[in-house]
Every structure is written in C-alpha cells, then in structure tokens.
Amino acid sequence: MPAVSTSRIEAKFRDLRERRAKGLVVYLTAGDPRLEVTGELLAAVDRAGADVIELGVPFSDPLADGPVIRRAAERALAAGMRTRACLECLAHVRERLDVPLVPMTYAALLEAYGYERFAVDARAAGATSLIVADLPAGEGPELKRVQLVAPTSTDERLRIAAAQTDGWLYLVTVTGTTGTRSEVSPALAGLVSRARAATDRPLYAGFGISTTDHARAAAELADGIVVGSRAVEVAEEGPAALCSYVASLRAALDG
Questions:
Q1: For this structure, is 155 an active site residue?
Q2: Were 144 and a residue from 3, 36, 82, 155 both cysteine, which residue would form a disulfide, CB within 3.0 to 4.6 Å?
C-alpha cells in the first residue's frame, strides 16, 4: 500500500536530536470552527514554534477523544467538513507551512474512504505520516503510520508497535480519552522505560498534557510532547491566543 511521505518529519526529528531539543506536537481539528479559519490557526501554531501538527479529521464517534475535541468535531461536521475536504485543506495549507502535517483519523473513516485511496490522496496532499487512533499495531490493513501505546499495552504489543511505527512512537500517558488533567500521569515513567527498551525511535507523550509545568515534566522523560485538548480550547479564542499559548509551551520545553 502506498505510504505517505516521511522525509519532512525525519528531517525534523534529526534536527531536534542534533540540537538536543525537545519536540512539540500540537493537535487541531480540521474545519473547526470553519474551514477558512483552520489555515489561520495552523499558521499561528507553526509561527509559535510547533515541530509537528496533527490535523484531526472530524468524526461523529471519536472514541479516543474527550469532550473538548468531540465538540470541535461536531462544529466542523456541522460546517460541512468531511474527509475529502480535510485533505483539500491540508493541500491548501501545506504550501504555506514548513511544519510537518500529520492527519489523525479513525478506522471507520478510512474504511469508508478506502485505505489505499486515502494513503494515495494524503500523500498527494502533502501529509507527513498518519495516525489512526483506534487501529492497534498489527491489526487492519498494512498502513505506514505512527503507532500509539499506553500504560496498559503488553510488552508484546509494545514491541509490535515499536517495530511498525513510522518516525516516532506516541505514548498515551493515561487510560481513557483525551482531555486536560491536573498532573502528568505517574504511569509515564514506566511506559517510557519499557518503550526505550523496545526502540530507539523518538518517544512523544500525549493525552492530559496542557500546561507549561506538564510540558516540562513530561519532556524530562520523553523526547517531546503532544498537546491536543487545551490547544483546541484556546483556538476557540482565535489565532493570537493560540499563538501565545503554543509559544509558552515552546519556551517551557526550551527552558
């Protein structure tokens, strides 16, 4: 099956490693609140210093997402955003952004669209890898993508995910859905330790990371962080507020 291009993200991770810098991945929902605003929000995230952007494909039943991202998906769907339109949005903003863009979607949407067709169209649109939130490693059709593992993942499942992951390994720090938490999960240390034993790929921690304190704490263990729910929340205030928020995370990681 055709794979989306990974050259941008490989170059990004190589640069981060050479500079001994921590990476910052920011998630936004495509089409929230409207398609014409998405480009402005993505540009703000890029300008503020994010290293990678996850572009969420809105879905009516996002099992991995908490209330903030669910509401964002509902707004985007109500505005007419669909999978094909997300790829068109990606292609449009790709020309204006240097940061790698990674679509995040669900298996049901890929089945409806067609796995191979999506891989071809995403690559043509300029996607850099892919995340499928509810498709475990070793299951479903062969598809080059970032794999997710959680504290509940067995050692065998973790090894499979580490061997198959594209570019980096996504560490889900908590069980349950996305959303802000009061502190970084104490389970992250053990998950990082197990993942380090399984792969030399970069490890990025996500789910529940929202503050600068969270960013610093998680980055002491992992190679970078993924911020979703809080970024989507701040994005409701507009590009300027989002730029300021992402810049504060960037400063925390660099400090």
A1: no
A2: 3
- Domain range enclosing 112: 7-254
> Does 100 map to a domain?
yes
Q: What is the pLDDT of residues 101-152, one digit of tens each?
A: 999 999 999 999 999 999 999 999 999 999 999 998 888 777 889 999 999 9
Q: Is the pLDDT of residue 45 over 70?
A: yes
Res 179: pLDDT? 46
Helix (H) or strand (E) holding 166: none
Instruction: Check whether 210 has a pLDDT greater than 50.
Output: yes
Tokens 């970024």 correspond to 231
Helices 115-125 and 83-94, packing angle to 10 deg: 20
Residue 1 resides in a domain: no
Global pTM exceeds 0.90: yes
**Which residues have C-beta within 8 Å of that of residue 57, sequence separation ≥ 6?**
30, 83, 86, 103, 104, 105, 106, 109
The CATH code of the domain that includes 121 is 3.20.20.70
Given 54, 121, 166, 233, the catalytic residue? 54
3-state secondary structure at position 205: strand
Question: Which of 32, 46, 51, 65 is the catalytic position?
Answer: 65
149's enclosing H/E stretch is: strand 147-149
Smallest CA-to-CA distance from 101 within 130, 128, 125, 132 is with 128
